[in-house]
Amino acid sequence: MPAPLLTRDELLDRLHDTFRRYGYEGASMSRIAAATGLGKASLYHHFPGGKEQMAEAVLASRRRWYEDKLFRPLESVHPPRQRLLNMLTSLDEVYAQGDKASLPALLSLTVERDMFAEAIADFFQRWLDCMTQLMIDAGLARDIATRRAHDAVQRIQGALLMSRAFGESKPFAGLLSELPDQLLAGADRGNIWSSRSPRLPSAPSGFSPHAQSLRQ
Length: 216
What we know:
Blueprint lengths: L7 H19 L2 H8 L3 H7 L3 H25 L5 H15 L8 H6 L8 H21 L4 H25 L3 H14 L25 H4 L4
Helix pairs in contact: 1-2, 1-4, 4-5, 4-7, 5-9, 7-8, 8-9
């Protein structure tokens, strides 16, 4: 029976899952073919540049996802605490409560970093910029906001690593529940509406039952 037809997004999602499960080197063409249901000839038809082009396409796709689900909501006109909670909910979802890896972070730890350095650096810098601006909006001085943004991203990645290492969600979930109060400590505008014009306003997203615990 022929493999079912995949949309471009479905194909990239399957490639993404394969790369972050096995890493770049471990994602052999045989594993990719099994995950996508496509033969090697079909894969090379879609990606003449082979596995490197596949990874580039996946990183570009995930960058768009983060832009839509993380970065633009962080820049919205909602109160800084609400924006932060929305970000944490999205992270909880995309990392499956700490069970799944961050592909940009994973690739940055291996020799493939040199192949995708620009995309990886752009991803993390965009995240840091959004986090810094959020805390400035909350009333913190720029130098404090910058330090806390770097600390937050580093701690998120570290907690994700620890959750995966121990095979449990506790390190990641625990950090997510602590971050709002820690990042906004001393801020005097954490719960008011921002007067800054956003690039793209975003309505507050709904919270899953698991994510509701982040409010507490």
